[in-house]
Amino acid sequence: MSLSCNDAQPCSLTRFLIEEQRAGHIEPDLRLLIEVVARACKRISIAVGKGALGGVLGEAGLPGAASMNVQGEAQKKLDVIANDVLMEANAWGGHLAGLASEEMDHSQPIPDEFPRGRYLLLFDPLDGSSNIDVNVSVGTIFSVLPYAKQGQDPVDADYLQPGTAQLAAGYCVYGPQTTLVLTVGHGTHAFTLDREVGSFVLTTRNIRIPEQTAEFAVNMSNQRHWQPPMQAYVGDLLAGKTGPRGKDFNMRWVASMVADVHRIMTRGGIFSYPLDAKNEAKGGKLRLMYEANPMAFLVEQAGGAATTGRQRMLEVRPADLHQRVPVFLGSKGEVEEAGRYHREHD
Ligand code: AHM
Ligand code: MG
């Protein structure tokens, strides 16, 4: 019998994490933390899967008075449910010092009645929430950062670490299958939820994103609002075989970052949400700490690249918990091309 799990011998997330711990890639507490997040994702997957039968669709808050999050966006019932599931699951385990979420104005230290650990967890509990009510894939994104100040409550400033400091990151996509994609800094791996057994099973070890691609993901309805580098870049993609890029490009846009990134993990592509006239004042649309950084870590560990168009994403120095950034990520060659257009058209 083989001593470690591999493609020929699939294993559970639990076994995979124990092997990562034995290999010296993660501390026991980080293993527990990832297990807890994965368990929370299973619960969210069940809630998402029930849809109208579970009374979970539609907006949170009272009729005519939708509840808003810190971003000024109307919260869906499932946004709130997913946030509560992650908060509750992670509060008492003893592995965390604090949590921060897209749905909460400020980070929260672990309550005093529980022991405190050495990690900070950031998450977007339900990304792509505009897709919930129409039965299209949504997902959870998470990022784990270290916390060294023992005996003190972590505050928002403690979370403002660059993406290079992440110890683990992942997302769970709730689609036809529920799939958890995870990195602890030693490759990016995919685990599919076996719904009958209730456990995540390793289905792809060491995802490799093809370096070249002929597929891009962007919300084209924003084209007229884009800045010159993006206009020039996408203009040349659309020009096809007879244009400067010399090949035809296909386009896909799910409007759930997790689903778009998962497609890129599977078959390559470039995902972008650039600066435009509508989001410029805020710095972009997507959030650095719990959307762009974890995705950038996962993509780099799968051999891809992630930038703001002008800078490596993981090296951005965060100034705010809910900071927004332009995002370009996916197939390395194509992300580099997008960077070249930024340098040449700025
Ligand atoms: P959310 O976290 O509020 O769901 O917003 C983030 C989502 C991403 O998943 C997706 O890529 C993007 O917003 C879609 O934006 P748009 O509706 O402008 O196409
Ligand atoms: Mg989101």
TrEMBL record:
Keyword DNA-binding (UniProt): no
Cofactor(s) listed in the protein's UniProt record: Mg(2+)
Chain positions recorded as Mg(2+) 1 binding sites: 102, 124, 126
Main location: cytoplasm
Cofactor remark: Binds 2 magnesium ions per subunit.
Subcellular compartments: Cytoplasm
Coiled coil ranges: none
Annotated binding of substrate, by residue: 127-130, 219, 285
GO cellular component, one term: cytosol
Residue ranges annotated for the Fructose-1-6-bisphosphatase class I N-terminal domain, each copy included: 12-204
Annotated ranges, domain Fructose-1-6-bisphosphatase class 1 C-terminal: 209-342
Keywords, comma-separated and alphabetical: Carbohydrate metabolism, Cytoplasm, Hydrolase, Magnesium, Metal-binding
SUPFAM superfamilies: Carbohydrate phosphatase
Lineage top rank: taxon: Bacteria
Protein family membership: Belongs to the FBPase class 1 family.
PANTHER family per record: FRUCTOSE-1,6-BISPHOSPHATASE-RELATED, SEDOHEPTULOSE-1,7-BISPHOSPHATASE, CHLOROPLASTIC
Oligomer status and interactors: Homotetramer.
Identification of the protein by name: Fructose-1,6-bisphosphatase class 1
Lineage of source species: Bacteria, Pseudomonadati, Pseudomonadota, Gammaproteobacteria, Lysobacterales
